[in-house]
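User: Could you check the structure of this?
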Amino acid sequence: MTLLGVILLGVCFTSKPGNLKAADDSFFWISATGDLRGEIKPCGCSTDGDMGGLLRRATYLKQMRSSHESVVYLDLGNNFPVPSEQGRLKVDLIQKAMLELRPDAILVGPNELLYERPLLNQNLPYFLSNLRGDWLVKKSLFVAAGEKRVGLWGYLSPAQIYQNKHEELDVFPVSSQFIEDLQKQLEETHPDFAVLMFRGDEKELQKFEKSQLFDLIITGSNNDDELNQILEMKTSEGSFISIPTKGQGAFHGRVDLNNKKKVNLELDWFLAKYEDDQKMMAYFDVYDQSVQALFFSNLDRMEKHELEAPYAGEETCKTCHIVQHQIWSTSRHSNAFATLENVNKHFDLECLQCHVVGLQKEGFLSPELTPKLLNVQCENCHGPGKAHSSNPKIRTPNAAVKEVCSSCHQGSHSPKFDYSLYYPKIAH
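Assistant: Sure, the predicted structure tokens are below.
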């Protein structure tokens, strides 16, 4: 479905039957957003892509709350950008904005877990139900909708995040035991309306669907293309709304507790009709000033680093060592940084030291500041080469090859490492 084809879309999704007693205050409203991925504001490059942003979301929510007495506002998370220095500034801005937006719940998404220590503001209602042990967030939430009580549970597939046995975070997959535990929680807490906020794949979703535990399931988007929005996730038996990619819109609708068989949710795109919220604009002004300061600071750091760093980078080596560079470019060493990105550990210093050049040795600083030092390159093995590139008579401080290899290919990091088998793959 193209972006043009969904601009005016209204969607009706079916939820399971309910058996709750009727009440006079049987109506409330739900609004669902999320999946910002650091897209804090439309860039302004094109009128065709002029949608989304926190400033318009703030105006949308103010209008919702002024028009409807009882609104439950849910956010499906995945709001943080990928890690970088500017990304950290965005994280701060996003969470300040979310405090103003006052969500009733925020599902912890993959992007919230990208940083070395999740930078989750404890004053925001982050939660996640499929967690073992105590962690930073609650496992369920209950919010008021008038005089009624809405129960909220959240699921994040372990397949969408990186975790290992040494980390505090322990997210487990949906199982029959987990479904039984959720059923007990629902029986004990007796919410008037039960919602699952879900991030996973269709097979995981179908297990929750078959359980018939929830009155409404809202899914977070797995889509990466905001120009080709995917607004529903389908199973073999039904379909469920998926919030727009890059935070470009929101679903909202009225829940009738007397007739929970059908919940009508309509899609609102955050177009220019939603003016920028002026109160929140102050946060953006501070952010812009911080970004500008970071830019000039980085220029100074890059200039200083270029003068002082002893590393030249593989492009410099290539000018003389063409054949050797070609052999290197076809090896896995040339894509070493991407392997970290694939498991969201490209910010972890313990991991980076074996995937870039000269970390903490006057070499690699960040992808933005020192892009020429990404991956395992010539200088990882041959030593700093800037002096050699300036004067070929100056030799690089080559270390013993086997010793260099074993400094990274050791223990659980490379359990199948055999020097006699691995070295021929890179020999030049």
